[in-house]
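Anyone up for a design puzzle?
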């Protein structure tokens, strides 16, 4: 019997550039990665966008959904009242086993609420967290949370560190990942009450290699494999980093075009600039994974273009192949079991 093709449920209506760039990205992904991409949204809109592209022999079924969870909606209310929204319908496809993962560039809060309602949390997980790879001088580190939870408790940061460590070890291939907590100073004792209380927990958490604080300016050095923080701080950090990348690219381009540069030198500089831009381009990273849910969800940037959607679907495919959800649940359960054994030994 022929093995069924992997199916990604895609929210066509979510994102600043929906539906045009979302559909275009789905076509690119279906062609390049040989996956089924279920296009969830208004059929008339999807059919109009599909007509712009050659789609012969691509598996792009349309799944009707006539409502949209807007950026202005209150997430928890929207996922309950807009039951025919593209986000909710796509989540149900995954929950019912008709798709393997859910991808969206829509309302992050809505995605989180829909995931908790329809997927449910992994056993023992208090809150899911958004995790992204971040470029450093040594490769990549993982940062979580970058937007799922504005306010968190120390115990939640502790769980983020465990999930991040498992992700780094089992998906990124880091044998013994280092964990640091984002703070306003690297010295012991620096940070707000959340950081101080979380630090005390992290120092006693089995299964992770906690190395203390890290300042925002040092994240790019690569001294941490996993950086944990609350969703508000993480989101501000990521957007600040995006702004700095744009500044660097703009300044370098101005300098290249402002002065007399030899044709060979100009080509070399421009080539280096293009390589740098690709290395720092967040559209290449494949979105943020919502860790801690019982099914796989990948959230793309709200301004995702077709290329970003293609890479987000690619990331979802790779994570399905890597059995991410099962690996995270197994790793978290192992840490909890070890912690219980330690407590029993101390009695």
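Challenge accepted. My sequence:
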């Amino acid at each position: 019997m022929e093995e069924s093709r992997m199916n990604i449920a895609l929210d066509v209506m979510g994102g600043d550039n929906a539906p045009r760039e979302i559909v275009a990205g789905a076509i690119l992904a279906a062609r390049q990665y040989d996956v089924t991409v279920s296009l969830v949204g208004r059929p008339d809109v999807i059919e109009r966008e599909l007509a712009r592209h050659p789609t012969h022999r691509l598996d792009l079924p349309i799944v009707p959904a006539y409502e949209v969870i807007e950026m202005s909606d209150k997430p928890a209310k929207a996922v309950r009242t807009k039951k025919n929204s593209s986000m909710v319908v796509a989540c149900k496809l995954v929950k019912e086993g008709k798709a393997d993962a859910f991808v969206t560039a829509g309302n992050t809060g809505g995605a989180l609420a829909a995931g908790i309602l329809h997927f449910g949390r992994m056993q023992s997980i208090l809150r899911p967290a958004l995790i992204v790879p971040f470029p450093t001088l040594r490769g990549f580190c993982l940062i979580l949370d970058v937007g799922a939870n504005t306010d968190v408790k120390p115990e939640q940061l502790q769980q983020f560190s465990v999930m991040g460590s498992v992700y780094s070890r089992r998906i990124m291939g880091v044998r013994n990942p280092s964990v640091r907590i984002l703070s306003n100073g690297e010295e012991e004792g620096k940070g707000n009450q959340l950081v101080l209380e979380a630090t005390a927990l992290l120092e006693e958490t089995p299964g992770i290699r906690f190395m203390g604080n890290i300042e925002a300016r040092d994240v790019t050095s690569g001294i941490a494999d996993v950086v944990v923080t609350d969703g508000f701080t993480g989101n501000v950090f990521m957007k600040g980093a995006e702004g700095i990348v744009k500044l660097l690219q703009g300044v370098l381009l101005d300098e290249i075009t402002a002065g007399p540069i030899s044709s060979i030198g100009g080509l070399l500089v421009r080539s280096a600039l293009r390589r740098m831009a690709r290395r720092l381009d967040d559209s290449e990273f494949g979105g943020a994974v919502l860790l801690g849910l019982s099914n796989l969800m990948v959230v793309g940037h709200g301004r995702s273009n077709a290329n970003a959607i293609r890479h987000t679907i690619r990331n979802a495919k790779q994570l399905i192949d890597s059995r991410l959800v099962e690996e995270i649940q197994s790793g978290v359960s192992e840490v909890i079991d070890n912690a219980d054994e330690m407590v029993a030994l101390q009695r």
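A detail worth pointing out: Residues 286 and 315 are 5 Å apart (CA to CA).
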